[in-house]
Amino acid sequence: MKKNTVVLGTQWGDEGKGKIVDLLTDNADAVVRFQGGHNAGHTLIINGQKTVLHLVPSGILREGVACYIGNGVVVEPEALITEIKELEKAGVNVRSRLRISTAAPIIMPYHILLDQLREKAKGGNAIGTTGRGIGPAYEDKVARRGIRFGDLLDAKLLHEKLTETLEYHNFVIENYFKHEPLNFDKIYQQALSFGEQLKEMNADVTAELHEMQQQGKSVLLEGAQGSLLDIDHGTYPFVTSSNTTAGAASTGTGLGVTDISYVLGITKAYTTRVGSGPFPTELFDDDGKMLAKNGVEFGATTGRPRRCGWLDLVALKRAVQMNGVTGICVTKLDVLDTFSEIKVCTAYEVDGKHQQNFPDSADSWEKIKPVYETLSGWKSITKGITEFNDLPKQAITLIDKIADYTDTPVHIISTGPDRDENIIIKNPLLG
Ligand code: GDP
Ligand code: IMO
Ligand code: MG
C-alpha cells in the first residue's frame, strides 16, 4: 500500500511543519519540497540542537533519507549553496542525498530587487513579503520567461534567455522604479558559477519519485507556508505567490494525485501570522503577549515578531476541506500551559449575523468579528508529554473540540519543540 503523505500548514505558516516532517521521516524513504522557496523557515530541534532549513527538505538530518526539491519550488541558488555549506559544516552529507529538479524556476537577482522595490513603493499597503523574490520569480514562470535550474547548466541557452528577460526587467527597474539597471555580465557569470556548483544534484525528480513508487517506497511531501497564504484560496492579496494547498504536492513534483494516500494538516493550538493581512482572532492584549512570549514567536526566516491570536476554527475547517485533510496535527499545545482560559473562534460575526463560512475576498475581512467559545485552561505542564492519557482533561477537551468542529481526527499532538516531544495517536506512515 502506498504511504505517500503530504504534510502542510493549515494556517498562515510556521505551524511546525519542519519539526513534524523530521519526526515522520523516521519511517519515510524520501522527503520532497513541492512549492515555495527560501521564504520558508523550518525549524528542527534535536536534543536541544537547532537547525533552520529554508530550501533543503526537513528529512536531511535523518541519514539514508533521500531529499528532493521538486519542479514547483523556486530556487535561489546562492541561498541553497549557503544552506548546503552550513549543513556540511555541521557534518551532514547533503550533496549525495539532495536532488534538484531540472524544471525548478530560478530566483534571479532582479526578482529579489523587484520584490523589494515593489514593497517599498507600496508603503503602508505593503504585503510584508520576506523580500526573497518569490512573487516575481513565480510571475516569470507563469509568463513563460523564467530561467529554470537546467538552464544554468547550458551557457548558450542561459545567455539567450537572460538577454531577453533582463532587458524586460531592466526596463521596469529603470523607467518605473527609477533604479539603476542590473548588469548582465555579472548576473550571467554568477548564474553559470551557481550552476557549476549545483550541477551534480540536477535530476529528473518526477522520474526518480516514480521509480521509488515502483519499489514500494514512502515519500513525504513537505509543504511550505500555510493554506491561508495560498495564491488562490488564501487572504488575497495578502498571500504568497504559490499554491500552498495539497494539490500543489502533485503539480509541484509530478506525482499523481492518486499517489497520495494521506494529508496531514498542521495547526498550532492558537494562531500566528507574519506580515500584513486579515487576522480576525489577532490579540493586542496581555494574552497575545503571553502567546508570543511562551511560543517564542519570531519568524525563522526574517526574525520579525509574529502576530498572535486565538485558534480560528472557521479558518481551520476551510483549510481541512481545501486540502482533503486525513488527520490533524496540533502543535504548540504546551504554549497554552499558563492560561486560565482559552478561546477558540467558532463563527464570524458579519453585520450582526453569525456565519461559519470563510470569505473569499479581502474586502469582507474588515467587517468580521470573531465569535468565541471559552474553554477552561489547565494551568499545568503539558510540555514533553508523550501519552494522550497523561494530558489534563481540559487539554483533551480542546483537542476534542478541534476534531469535532472540523469533523476530522487529531492524529498527532506536539508538546514541545524537540523531536521527541509528541503524542502520536496514529502515524500516517505506519499501519
Ligand atoms: P514551520 O515553518 O512550519 O516549519 O515552523 P517554524 O519552524 O517556522 O516555527 C515553529 C516554531 O515552533 C519553531 O521554533 C519550532 O521549534 C517551535 N515548535 C514546534 N513545535 C512546537 C511545540 O509543540 N511546542 C513548542 N513550544 N514549540 C514548538
Ligand atoms: P514557512 O514555510 C510564515 C508570508 C510573508 C508575507 C507573505 C508573502 O516557514 O511556514 P512572500 O515572501 O512569500 O512573497 O511573502 O507570506 N510568508 C510566510 N509566513 N511562514 C512562511 O513560511 C512564510 N513564507 C511567506 O510573511 O506575509
Ligand atoms: Mg517557518
Radius of gyration: 22 Å
Low-confidence region ranges: none
Please state the overall shape, judged from the principal axes of the Cα atoms.
globular
CATH topology tier name of the largest domain? Adenylosuccinate Synthetase, Chain A, domain 1
State the end-to-end distance: 10 Å
Count of DSSP strands: 18
Proportion of strand residues: 15-25%
Helical coverage, percent range: 25-40%
What is the quaternary state of this protein? Answer: single chain
Assigned CATH superfamily of the largest domain: Adenylosuccinate Synthetase, subunit A, domain 1
> What is the level 1 CATH name of the largest domain?
Alpha Beta
The appropriate CATH architecture of the largest domain is 3-Layer(aba) Sandwich
Q: What ions, cofactors and ligands are bound?
A: guanosine-5'-diphosphate, 6-O-phosphoryl inosine monophosphate, magnesium ion
How would you describe this structure to a colleague?
The chain is globular. Helix content is 30%, strand content 20%. It has helices at residues 17-24, 77-89, 109-122, 134-142, 155-175, 184-198, 205-214, 247-251, 286-294, 313-323, 393-406; strands spanning 4-9, 30-33, 42-46, 49-53, 66-69, 98-101, 202-203, 219-222, 260-268, 271-273, 307-309, 311-312, 327-331, 341-350, 353-355, 369-376, 410-414, 422-424. The model has no long low-confidence stretch (mean pLDDT 96). The strands form 4 sheets. A 10-stranded mixed beta sheet has the order 7-6-5-2-8-1-9-13-17-18, sandwiched between helices. It is α/β, with parallel strands linked by helices and 431 residues long. The longest helix has 21 residues, at 155-175.
